[in-house]
Amino acid sequence: MTLKWGIVGVAGIGASHAKALKDMEGVELYAACDVVPEVLDNFCEQFGVPHRFTDYGEFLKSEVEVVSICTPHFLHTEQVIAALEAGKHVLCEKPLAISVSETDAIVAAAQKAKGKSGVVFQHRLDPPVQAVKKVLPELGELVRGFYECHHFRTMTYYRQGKWRGTWWGEGGGVLINQAIHDLDVLVSLLDLPKQVTARLSNWGHNGIEVEDLATAVFEWENGAHFVVHISSVASALPTRLEITGNNATVIQEGRSVRLGRYTTPLRQFLEESPEVWGSPKAVWEDVPVDMSIPHGHKDAVQQFAKAILTGQEPIVSLSEGAKSVELVNAMILSHFTGAPVSIPVDRSAYDALLTELKQGVKRLR
Ligand SMILES: NC(=O)c1ccc[n+]([C@@H]2O[C@H](COP(=O)([O-])OP(=O)(O)OC[C@H]3O[C@@H](n4cnc5c(N)ncnc54)[C@H](O)[C@@H]3O)[C@@H](O)[C@H]2O)c1
């Protein structure tokens, strides 16, 4: 079997899809679609793609069997649903969509569709993240955590495209574009919290309307707290993830992962220790990080092709890929209402807020 693959949106990450697939057995780069003819022509010539379309509807009418959606965020919902309804397999770039009501519509369409579908979230495959995942069962009941994620972006980055840095085009700032990867890693490890409280600001990007700094507290049913601190304005800081459970703490910083096992579980020590000022000690060890496991964007795209070719499930399904949008929407809604937001997010409340943000009725500053 050879899959006839098509890519929609080819100026940026679309080329990475083509590079991942061009020499892959069982895949033929069959078609491409872009609204900018010269971008489309250059791409088709570079990758030897035989069928080119400037109209997405015509592209879907072709014999293309698998569609990579690599367009700006605001187009994902209509393009994913149209491709699913046309009977195609669909791989959508992150974020799955801008709002949770959109991700609901996509997931509903996928449930009725015949084709396989998935979202590109390559960072959950990162070897340090996989090392954290491996030791997670040792932690026991979740107590607290901290996640520091910085993705510096200049105004030149934002000037690359009109859709960037806008509520209508991007649906947010650092949260929905860059930190969506970190939030996806978090849900891949801990799933969704029960409640989110957040503050956002635009600290340093004059000329864009969305956030470049965000801090949130995620709360779980058992009272566990997790602090997430995200920015596109702080630099030279490592990504740092800490998760503390009743039995141990794991700390990931860059490629380093360390596990500290408590000599006595926290709850037991709290309850039973005769000491007034004592606390459980931790015995620390380095957790091996296997850099040879498949990871990165290329492997994530290839894994989706393999899932179709071998009948396996994609790594990140659409409903799994929707969870990070749930967190982003919860953080934005919490900021603008000044109140904690329960998960699942109130769909109509978020839609109403997004409409006001797009219209400029509500602003960050
Ligand atoms: N997984 C990752 O690490 C990663 C990295 C970069 C970008 N992305 C995601 O990929 C998507 C695209 O980002 P980008 O940086 O490549 O954007 P881009 O603006 O560089 O490219 C988007 C392309 O889509 C085309 N396009 C616009 N409207 C279209 C339409 N109606 N039909 C067909 N084509 C259309 C544009 O002409 C352009 O060629 C975004 O969702 C982004 O978040 C993911």
Give the amount of beta strand, in percent: 15-25%
CATH architecture of the largest domain: 2-Layer Sandwich
Q: Summarize the helix and strand pattern as letters.
A: EHEHEHEHEHEHEHHHEEEEEEHEHHHEH
Contiguous low-pLDDT stretches (5 residues minimum) are: none
Ligands: nicotinamide-adenine-dinucleotide
Biggest sheet strand order reads: 14-13-12-11-7-10-9-8-15
Fourth-tier CATH superfamily name of the largest domain: Dihydrodipicolinate Reductase, domain 2
Total strands: the figure is 15
Intertermini distance: 54 Å
Number of domains: 2
The secondary-structure class comes to: alpha/beta
Looking at the structure, what is the overall shape? globular
> How large is the count of helical segments?
14
Under CATH at level 1, the class of the largest domain stands as: Alpha Beta
What is the CA-atom radius of gyration, in angstroms?
Answer: 22 Å
Mean pLDDT: 97
Q: How would you sum up the major sheet?
A: 9 strands, mixed
In short:
The protein is 37% helix and 23% strand. It is α/β, with parallel strands linked by helices. It starts with a strand and ends in a 6-residue tail after the last helix.
